[in-house]
Specification:
This protein folds into two domains: 1-75, 2-Layer Sandwich (Alpha-Beta Plaits); 76-130, no CATH class. It has 130 residues and is an alpha+beta fold. The N and C termini lie far apart (39 Å). The chain has helices at 2-5, 7-22, 48-62, 91-112, 126-129, and strands at 30-35, 38-42, 77-81, 116-120. The protein is built from five helices and four strands; from the N terminus they run ααββαβαβα. Strands 1-2 form a two-stranded antiparallel sheet.
């Protein structure tokens, strides 16, 4: 996007996306810029089904944004991963594991094509953290 639209346009668009997301998540949720064109959202105490619904809502809202007036809707891909929390797991390992699964889910969504949402369930993480 930076090569196509320029750094200033991308920065302005990411600010718009940040405001859009912040205005459409719960007060106890967090949205932050993760990479140049990536926003991470932490949805506390949210089931997989609820998370998918929340992301679908953000996807619909983002469909109205454009990097420039003449461009189509911005590309959207989302990767979801539920944190697995057990008393005997080290908290650093839990965070690292969920970030890795969220990144993998995002890569899977991008590879699947435009406007995809991919979920890596918590059950796939139990062996990785234990």
């Amino acid at each position: 996007m930076v090569r196509e639209f320029g750094e200033q346009a991308v920065e302005a668009t990411m600010r718009q996306i940040g405001q859009l997301f912040a205005g459409n998540i719960r007060q106890n949720d967090l949205a932050f810029r993760y990479e140049t064109t990536t926003v991470a959202i932490i949805l506390g105490e949210t089931t997989e089904k609820e998370a998918v619904l929340a992301v679908e809502k953000l996807q619909r809202l983002m469909g109205e944004l454009r990097a420039s007036e003449k461009q189509p809707a911005l590309p959207f891909a989302a990767g979801l991963a539920e944190a697995v929390i057990h008393q005997n797991f080290d908290s650093v390992d839990i965070v690292t594991e969920v970030i890795n699964r969220a990144e993998q889910a995002l890569q899977n969504a991008i590879a699947a094509g435009a406007n995809q949402i991919t979920v890596l369930s918590a059950s796939s993480a139990a062996a990785a953290v234990a």
